[in-house]
Specification:
The structure is a homodimer of 547-residue chains.
Chain A (H helix, E strand, L loop, with lengths): L2 E2 L6 E2 L2 H7 L9 H21 L6 E11 L24 E9 L9 H6 L3 E2 L14 H13 L3 E7 L3 E10 L4 E11 L5 E11 L1 H18 L4 E5 L5 E4 L12 E2 L8 H10 L5 H8 L5 H11 L12 H13 L16 H12 L3 E6 L3 E3 L2 E11 L10 E6 L2 E3 L7 H9 L13 E9 L16 H53 L8 H16 L5 H7 L2
């Protein structure tokens, strides 16, 4: 018998085991997604490792074929094909993936765990980074292990006199790295960076279009990076940096009082040296200075002299509630964020779409649950923007291009259900593209695979405002274009018929000399010029729009 | 300064800490979703605990108000409202949630971990259950703890002479339960079941519509359960069982050879008593008997006498690849699955929508990655089905109603992009509802929040086939309806004008007696009857459809 009566078996599983069992939720759901996610996660780790220390990134990604492992089952059978007949699927192969960067490197003592242990890493701080869950790179290596049973080779140096090399695997059931070998090399040239190399089963052929799109869009928003990708056929894709000007390195941020819960407070109490509430508040919370702390304590009748370590559980709950309800805290400081900026956004869009019209907007900082965020939007019309019958959408989050699951993203919701495009002179077949970038110390992703963003009301609202702003500029442009077109036609008509009328009138009056119609024509053109200059923002519409 | 220069701090975090930090991904993204998810997850655990032992479930859910904790920030400000002005949000309150069942109960020694430790539980087996990740119920309790800082009270008995009561909290950083108190009561009546009670902050007002819909739909697909819900205003919602006939308890299933990876094989090797490959294959894999095992070993040139514990890493990889490529394994046994069945599906739809036409279809079992699954579909037309301009979609997975993120679900994709509804005589304003149920030993959810299903090609194809099947039946009905309508009009015309023609002809011919037109009329009606009986399945369309 291959089945058995159920028993209630209670067991603990390790986080590695959990994500091994549920790799779908981390973006590793099939051979094609696995290759895409693996390359993506490691590239993003590399970019993060450079940006943290403001090193202009040089990233080298190479995917090469090891062997062919035709598979059953996972191929989607063609329509009409007999489903029962399982066929080998030629796309799945074993590849070697190598990702090398010139980033800050990982200290030797952390290497085995940083690459071979789930829920271990340097991403568990509140700052704007691509990595959020500290999971993706390790999932890639883990996926390689479970499909090929081979170790990963990690080479890294922080720029000191040694380069460390480790061969590791993960004990999935224990969630611990197994070191199969290690070596130390002399670092004569002072190299710093990390090279990750491992075997992985995947389907590059199917992943290719998205993957190349991923690299292209990444290059668009990280113009300070050199990214090289060598595909399994040896084709070289190079994205050369256009600038060495780096964004400010991401700063860590203290918890904002609006974003805390009792667990946060409890943890701070466990480690604090503060001996009174005044000290406690000003030391551990984002943008809480002495005067704000005093006003807060006054308002909430908490004794400023009370020792935080002596707060009772119920008092901690009251403190959290008081923090959430106190109106006097400053909003989160957005200087820890690194938006693309309007210039970069515009340059990227121009390069990509060469549109007839472009408008960009960087919104002012906002916050959700104590996390600061900034929304940026760009709109592109005409030119090379394809007429697809829908709006072409480019989504970015902390400079990561998001290419899957567009329909689940908050931006899609805003564009396809909230926006009333008729108001902005946009019809179904208008060739239109939108670019949305969100940066935050914590992007509210809805899945571990980081493919789409949850519809947090604050985020949704900012996106809507940004989209409306650029759309209004587009509407103005389209209105002007229309009236210029109308005007052109009108002048055209006048300049065609006025001479005839002039001639006819001259003949009718028995005169010889026709009147000079040029001043009249010119006056008409002047009127047209004025039309062009007229403020085009329809105040009526504006007000209506904000109701 | 409230911000600091970044340092690369490497640390290990516990799984409890991971899900605490990233509760959005488990469905706890805001106060309204938190209440919804908490009630849903605990109800589903209760239903599972009953079904495992074929106990007709009696589930009692009570949500009562503890106190009001108005909040800032999380309220979505109205359009046009000043966003900077933070306002208390009156919907958020502290509730007590109590969920009681008559299920199998949890043995005392497992209670603290089963309710106070993440990644610990009884759901890590391969069988059809609502719970998949072993996470939801604990996330609910954890969310309660981080919002109210109060312990959860668990009361449970397996039906022996004691009832055990525990007061627990979770040490999130260590991922270990903290037992604050415990008690043993005499179990004089032999009660078995579990009662979970804890405090949680949430927004019931906003969650209410979805929550009531959740209970309604749950009752629809679990007609053997009594479910009682008492809301914070004391309103009682009762769903009484219509039958005590229970589905077969879910059976655990061995791994199918098509679904294994090297990690699975490695783990089996670690625990196996098998001393040769023949024994190894027939003992540990789903539907592998002696003759199949022999054929497999012959085809792959693996020595049947080899000791599995002596396989080298590369041999394990080859074994896995051989398993995936061997065409001779039997498909997964679907007897471990418990579909709703066509009768229940039809009854549920009738009760809910009272449609003019209904068609249901339970597809034959299929499999993806070695996991068996069955797709069921129901279509409802007319009657109380609302004319919404779109298709009303009801999604179920292992008897769980899925109410959020419809647009991300594979079913939505099938219905809105793959299906060509024109072929089925369905227009934009056709009042149409579709019900899709998928049952499997592993539902390919895309998020830990279990709200939508990934587009695994095998699953997508089965859904498409099921939808096409019921849609064809609908199309036949609509065709017949049209021709009956046409016929009715034709007969109507004849029966109105034939008497006049008869009278006129009689007068014209100078006769006295009009001819009897009734046989003529009857013959026309007979023709109409035949029309009704004509086979309505258009073979042309059918073939076209499967290309």
């Amino acid at each position: 018998m291959s089945t058995s009566r159920p028993k209630e078996v209670f067991q603990e599983i390790s986080p590695a085991d959990f994500f091994y069992r549920n790799r779908d939720i981390a973006g590793f759901s099939n051979p094609s997604r696995a290759i895409y996610s693996a390359i993506r996660e490691l590239t993003e780790n590399s970019l993060d490792a450079c940006e943290v220390h403001q090193i202009p990134p040089d990233i080298y990604v190479r995917l090469s074929v090891e062997g062919e492992t035709p598979q059953l089952v996972s191929a989607p059978p063609e329509e009409g094909e007999e489903e029962e007949e399982a066929k080998p699927f030629p796309g799945v192969r074993t590849y070697t993936l190598r990702v090398a960067d010139n980033g800050s490197g990982v200290p030797a003592e952390f290497i085995p765990s940083a690459f071979g242990q789930i829920l271990y890493g340097s991403k568990y701080q509140m700052r704007q980074m691509r990595g959020t869950f500290g999971l993706g790179g390790k999932m890639a290596i883990l996926y390689g292990q479970i499909t090929t049973h081979r170790p990963a080779k990690i080479t890294s140096s922080t720029g000191n006199d040694k380069i460390h090399v480790f061969e590791i695997m993960t004990d999935i059931q224990k969630n611990r790295p197994i070191i199969l070998g290690s070596d130390k090399l002399e670092n004569e040239r002072g190299w710093h960076g990390t090279i990750v190399e491992f075997s992985i089963e995947g389907d590059y052929i199917r992943a290719m279009p998205k993957l190349l799109e991923y690299f292209k869009q990444t290059a668009m928003v990280t113009p300070y990076a050199n990214v090289t990708f060598v595909d399994p056929d040896g084709r070289l894709y190079r994205f050369i940096r256009a600038t060495t000007k780096m964004p400010q390195p991401p700063k860590e941020i203290l918890p904002h009082p609006y974003g805390v819960d009792v667990e946060t407070i409890r943890r701070i109490i466990n480690v604090t040296d503060a001996e009174d509430m005044m000290d406690f508040l000003t030391t551990h919370f984002h943008r809480v200075g002495k005067s704000i702390a005093k006003r807060f304590l006054d308002a909430t009748e908490i004794d400023p002299a009370e020792n935080p370590t002596e707060l009772k559980p119920q008092e901690i709950v009251s403190l959290v509630q008081a923090m959430k309800n106190f109106g006097g805290f400053l909003p989160p400081d957005a200087s820890v964020l690194s938006p693309l900026g309007e210039d970069l956004l515009e340059a990227g869009i121009k390069k990509e779409l060469n549109p007839e019209f472009i408008a960009v907007e960087t919104r002012k900082p906002s916050a959700y649950s104590g996390f600061p965020f900034i929304v940026e939007a760009g709109i592109a019309y005409g030119g090379d923007v394809p007429r697809t019958g829908s709006i072409l959408l480019f989504r970015f989050a902390n400079r990561i291009p998001l290419l899957y699951d567009e329909a689940s993203d908050v931006t899609y919701k805003v564009i396809h259900t909230t926006m009333n495009w008729n108001r902005y002179k946009v019809a179904q077949d208008t060739p239109l593209a939108l670019v949305i970038h969100i940066c935050s110390t914590k992007i509210p992703y809805k899945t571990v695979g980081k493919e789409f963003i949850a519809d947090r009301p604050e985020v949704e609202k900012e996106i809507l405002k940004a989209v409306r702003e650029v759309s209004r500029k587009l509407a103005s442009y389209l209105t002007r274009k229309e009236s210029i077109e109308r005007e052109r036609k009108r002048i055209d008509v006048f300049s065609r018929y006025l001479p005839k009328i002039a001639r006819f009138s001259t003949e009718l009056a028995g005169r010889k000399k026709e009147p000079d119609i040029n001043p009249l024509l010119r006056s008409l053109i002047r009127y047209a010029k004025e039309t062009r200059k007229r403020p085009r923002l329809d105040e009526e519409e504006e007000r209506d729009d904000n109701q």
